[in-house]
C-alpha cells in the first residue's frame, strides 16, 4: 500500500522529485515543536527549499505546511538512507489543517535521526511563503514502547535469524528498514514450537520511518512465554543489502481473558444493535456467527462518539470455527473508554446468530529488557533447485 494513497496529490509534484543530494537554494533546520518559514519562488527542483528535521528520540509527530495566502504547499520527506518516504500535498481531513490546500500528515512515528523535508509548492498562486511546523503528535493507547535497533547485512541466499525471549501477554512491534531504496525485505516471527504467528512483506501502516517496501509486524500479542525466532530475508533470495531492525516492546496485557456470547435473530437486510462497555487499552475480538445456512452476517463497530472503527463481512481467514460467510473483527485495540455500538447486519438471508465478544486483557505499558543482539546470526538458505521440464514422451508407433 502506498502511504500517499489516502492523500490528494497534484500532478505538479513531479517537478519536486529531486534527489536528497541536490543543492537547493536554501537549507534550514527544525526540531520537534518548532517551525520554520520559507519562501518558495516557483515550481521545480531549483525552487525547492531543504529543511533538515532532527528527531532526537523515537516520537510521534504531525507534519504541517501552511500558507497565509493562496500558495498551495507541498512537502516531501526523505530519510537518512536517501529513500523517499512520502509526498504530501493536500490533506483536508487532517486534524490540524486549516485550509484544504494545507499539506499535513497526522500522528506518525519517526525514529531518531535526521530527515530531509523538501518544501515546495503546487502552482504559481500566492506569494510562495510557507510555514513548516513539526508538532508533537498523539500516540495511540499502545504507545511507542522501548525501542531497540539492530543492524545487519544480507548477501544472496542468506537470511538473518534472531532468538527473542518474549513474555506471555506481551505486545510487540517489529520492522525492518532497507538501507537503500531497492532493498525489499520480509519478516517472519515463529513461536517456540516453530509455527508462524506473524509475517509481513510490505507494511500497510502510516509511520514515516518506513518506506512502502519495508515489512512490519505491528502490535503482535504474544500468547505463551518462550523463545521466539525472528527471520529477516530479502523478498527474492538473490537480493542483497543492509537493514536495520526496529524492535518496539510496548508492554503487556493484564487481567484474565473472558468470553461473552450474545444471541439474536435477524430479518433479511435487518440491523441488530448491541452495546458493550470497553476500557481504553483492551484488546478484543468480535465474531458474528450465523446459526443457520441462510443468514450472511456483517459486523460494524462504532466508538462512543459514533465513529466507525471496524467492519467485516466475510472473515476470509482459515478459522475452523467459522463458516465462509461469518464475520469476524480479529483484533481491535480500544482507544477510548465507553459504550461501543456493535451492529450485526444481514447482508442476505434471515435467522438466528451469535455475537461473541472475546476480551484478551487490558494493555499496560512496561519497560521490558532488550533483546540480546549477539544471538542473531546470518545463515545460508539452500537455493531452490531449478525447474526441470518433463521429458517428452515418444508417440507410440503403429
The number of helical runs is 0
CATH class of the largest domain: Mainly Beta
**Tertiary shape:** globular
What is the CA-CA span between the terminal residues? 60 Å
**Rg of Cα set:** 25 Å
Using the coordinates shown, work out and report the CATH topology of the largest domain: Jelly Rolls
* Largest sheet report: 8 strands, antiparallel
Helix share, percent: under 10%
Q: What order do the helices and strands follow?
A: EEEEEEEEEEEEEEEEEEEEEEEEEE
DSSP strand (E) fraction? over 45%
Total strands: 26
Oligomer: single chain
Number of domain units: 3
Which CATH architecture of the largest domain is right?
Answer: Sandwich
What do the pLDDT scores average to? 90
**Overall SS class:** mainly beta
Uncertain stretches = 1-25
Description:
The chain is mainly β. The protein has 3 domains: 3-136, Jelly Rolls; 146-253, Jelly Rolls (Sandwich); 258-364, Jelly Rolls, CATH 2.60.120. The chain is 0% helix and 51% strand. The strands form 5 sheets. Strands 10, 12, 15, 17, 18, 20, 23 and 25 form an 8-stranded antiparallel β-sheet that branches. It has a 5-stranded mixed β-sheet with strand order 1-3-8-5-6, with no helix packed on it. A hairpin with a 5-residue loop joins strand 13 (185-190) and strand 14 (196-200). It is globular, with a radius of gyration of 25 Å. The relative contact order is 0.15.
